[in-house]
Inverse folding.
């Protein structure tokens, strides 16, 4: 069942239940009040009539010389004259003597043999009963009247059918009003429930559109109620999802490019290794050719080894969560120098280190790896015998690392690309091993893990300075 249907049927059922309960209580209360008024009126009239009738009987007995001389016929005639004189309308009288012998009765309807209102009537009280006789409803009130020591039972009978007829008519009217009100309410609640859930329908439609791949879809609900707030939050969620989807797509494209570049980079050294290994295996080479082939094999193997190590570092950085520790700057710089000293000495390149004393909150191994790669790139851009400067300066709450070379430099349009995986600014590779294009990517990842970024200042033909600013906060 849809939400608008739940609102519609729920509200309609509640209305019908409440309307019927309240209407029934109102009708019943009104009817009981009417009946009670009729009873109070009957009791009052019965008392007044009993008093007047007692006086008439007493007067008739006086004329006859006392109650002993008054026969039942005379008493009946006196009571009849009384009833005719007062012109009773829808009121009937019954009078009984002490032996329950009927003296007078102008009520012509058939009554039951056993009548509760005549049994054990207290001398100081009256009792009544409402009884259906035929198609009418009557109020029977019985009580004692005394005339000169003689006790009579006086029964007052009143037709109160109009009260019950009115009650039945009110019930019929209420039923028709109930039907009409329910129809009108049902129509109104249908429109109201559809109007109330229109925002949910819009939200559902936007959800379906987004689920089908259109992540730019947004909910256009500007109300200031809960649905408006829900729509705003939904749009915020959609913005974040769209951003994350775009990020995932970019990541997927980058990974695809990464794999393509990786395949290409692996193919080149493997082809060289296989070719020269096959040459040595199948051909009688001169000593010069043999040494040259071994040299190429060695260079290609070193390139492949270097590539595998860099890939391992990239995977390690992408999957690990680092806990930084305070490390001595002297320890970081000395570890870096030891790692690059041998390769620099082979090309007679001098490394000049200038650093401040102090501590840095970092991952020492990653910082050393970053500095080693930057120095390695600087060495590849330098000529034999040149100088490379390594600096680490402390100021305020930050450390500024810098690696400066005086080699070929980098074109301005190349600076924004050199941190991409497998991108090499020097396509010819004039010195050392040809760059595999992962060193600066690795350095950039390490800098990001420490809340920093690589900055390149380079002049073509004059050299390059790479700086990284790492702050505590």
């Amino acid at each position: 069942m849809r939400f608008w249907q739940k609102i519609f049927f729920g509200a309609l059922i509640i209305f019908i239940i409440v309307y019927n309960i309240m209407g029934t209580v109102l009708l019943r209360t009104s009817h009981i009040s009417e009946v009670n008024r009729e009873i109070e009126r009957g009791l009052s009239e019965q008392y007044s009539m009993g008093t007047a009738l007692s006086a008439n009987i007493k007067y008739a007995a006086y004329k006859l010389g006392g109650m002993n001389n008054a026969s039942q016929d005379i008493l009946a005639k006196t009571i009849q004259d009384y009833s005719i004189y007062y012109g009773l309308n829808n009121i009937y009288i019954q009078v009984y003597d002490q032996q329950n012998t009927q003296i007078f009765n102008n009520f012509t309807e058939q009554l039951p043999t056993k009548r509760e209102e005549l049994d054990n009537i207290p001398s100081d009280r009256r009792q009544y009963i409402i009884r259906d006789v035929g198609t009418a409803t009557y109020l029977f009130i019985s009580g004692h009247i005394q005339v000169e020591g003689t006790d009579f039972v006086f029964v007052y009978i009143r037709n109160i059918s109009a009260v019950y007829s009115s009650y039945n008519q009110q019930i019929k009217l209420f039923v028709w009003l109930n039907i009409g009100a329910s129809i009108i309410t049902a129509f109104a609640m249908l429109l109201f429930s559809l109007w109330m859930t229109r925002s949910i329908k819009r939200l559902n439609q936007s959800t379906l559109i987004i689920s089908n791949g259109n992540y730019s879809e947004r909910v256009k609900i500007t109300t200031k109620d809960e649905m408006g707030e829900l729509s705003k939050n939904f749009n915020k969620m959609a913005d974040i999802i769209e951003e994350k989807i775009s990020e995932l797509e970019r990541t997927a494209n980058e990974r695809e490019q990464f794999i393509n570049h990786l395949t290409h980079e692996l193919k080149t050294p493997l082809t060289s290794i296989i070719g020269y290994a096959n040459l040595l295996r199948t051909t009688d080479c001169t000593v010069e050719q043999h040494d040259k082939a071994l040299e190429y094999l060695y260079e290609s193997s070193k390139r492949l080894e270097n590539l595998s190590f860099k890939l391992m570092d990239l995977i390690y950085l992408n999957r690990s969560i680092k806990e930084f520790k305070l490390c001595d700057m002297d320890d970081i710089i000395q570890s870096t120098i030891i790692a690059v000293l041998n390769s620099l000495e082979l090309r007679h390149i001098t490394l000049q280190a200038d650093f401040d004393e102090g501590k840095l909150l970092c991952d020492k191994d990653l910082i050393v790896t970053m500095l080693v790669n930057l120095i390695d790139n600087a060495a590849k851009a330098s000529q034999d015998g040149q100088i490379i400067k390594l600096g680490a300066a402390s100021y305020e709450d930050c450390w500024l690392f810098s690696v400066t070379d005086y080699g070929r430099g980098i074109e301005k349009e190349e600076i924004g690309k050199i941190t991409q995986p497998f991108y090499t600014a020097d396509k010819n590779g004039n010195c050392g091993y040809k760059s595999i294009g992962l060193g600066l990517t690795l350095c950039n990842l390490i800098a990001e893990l420490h809340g920093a970024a690589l900055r390149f200042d380079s002049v073509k033909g004059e050299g390059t300075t790479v700086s990284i600013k790492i702050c505590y906060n």
Summary: The CA atoms of residues 12 and 186 lie 6 Å apart. DSSP finds ten helices and twelve strands in the chain.
